[in-house]
Amino acid sequence: MHEFFEKPFINTKVNVVWGEMDALGHVNNVSYFRYFETARIDFLKQTGLLSILSEPSHSPVLRDTYAQYKRPVTFPDTLHIGSYITDIKEDRFTMCYEAFSESQQAICTMGYANVVMFNMKTGQKTAISDNMLDILKQYEIGKS
């Protein structure tokens, strides 16, 4: 088995669909940000953070997001998006992604999102709650 599956990620399986292909015959670059969004929400569900964040006044907001394309992906394929956490601060953290292609047996894309906790009532950044912090630390790998 590939070492990708030995890493302590939250793993989200995504099927590549025909409509994600571009004129050059590979998955369009914007699709990876949708894959990462799917993986981010799945991470929140699998770790129990989604229920902690059910209070609408405090929400994680993307500050920025990034993708590095290593190998082109074509239909048909299935990607496994491994998600993990780095660089936890008082009011923010980084969620990292590695997309592994089943057909190529290789990592095809890597990325991250800087996530800031935001108080929707005050319009200001807010500290990560202790119970959320405890969960994030369980999935923290190294430092960025």
UniProtKB/TrEMBL annotation:
CDD domains: 4HBT. PANTHER family: 4-HYDROXYBENZOYL-COA THIOESTERASE FAMILY MEMBER (PTHR31793), ACYL-COA THIOESTER HYDROLASE, YBGC_YBAW FAMILY (PTHR31793:SF40). This is Acyl-CoA thioesterase. It comes from Pseudoalteromonas aurantia.
